[in-house]
Amino acid sequence: DVKVTQSSRYLVKRTGEKVFLECVQDMDHENMFWYRQDPGLGLRLIYFSYDVKMKEKGDIPEGYSVSREKKERFSLILESASTNQTSMYLCASRPFRTLLTGELFFGEGSRLTVL
Amino acid sequence: GENVEQHPSTLSVQEGDSAVIKCTYSDSASNYFPWYKQELGKRPQLIIDIRSNVGEKKDQRIAVTLNKTAKHFSLHITETQPEDSAVYFCAATNSNSGYALNFGKGTSLLVTP
User: Fold this and answer.
1) pLDDT of residue A78
2) What is the mean predicted confidence (pLDDT) over A57-69?
3) Distance (Å) from the C-alpha of residue B54 to the closest C-alpha of chain A?
4) How far does the CA of residue B28 sit from the closest CA of chain A (Å)?
5) How many percent of chain B have pLDDT more than 90?
6) SS (H, E, C) chain B
């Protein structure tokens, strides 16, 4: 079974803090993604990476950055957290051979609350 | 990003009835259309998918149909059971974002006994 692990299930941070959300997958997948999930808005793509050191902006990258130093790890960074970044964050991965199609494997999610 | 519209946002059916969820997409280059089910407090999981060269696919009580000309696809669940209650998301590949998936806003399905 593919395993996508997000380091923190629940976080509470204060406005202005720097926040790191970590995601690790154990199936040697090349592609990794960060989505945020909000009620009534579905899943929206923040950033994605097709290989180590590569990153691409998704639909809502403002206020976020990412890091992909190792193939198995994809980190989402909030440089200065704001209350409108309170959300559920979902990491996902898929193998390169299914670049144009293919199942995304999701982590359990990280629920971030910014006070 | 390219839009994926999903309807209805909520759906309530009696156990044993059928449920249909519909999605439309705008990216004419989309070629992959998965459906994910998310139970409360859990991660989304793929339940069925269809590729652009196929018009229909069925897996037991679940089927998906695709009309590429009209740019819409639908999920059909027959003989619904209470354990089908969940949020369902449709998605389509986005050719402008490296074929990442664009998701609909979700449909909350409730199956009452």
Assistant:
1) 97
2) 95
3) 13
4) 14
5) 81
6) CCCEEEECCEEEEECCCCEEEEEEECCCCCCEEEEEEECCCCCCEEEEEEECCCCEEEECCEEEEEECCCCEEEEEECCCCHHHCEEEEEEEEEHHHCCEEEECCCEEEEEEC
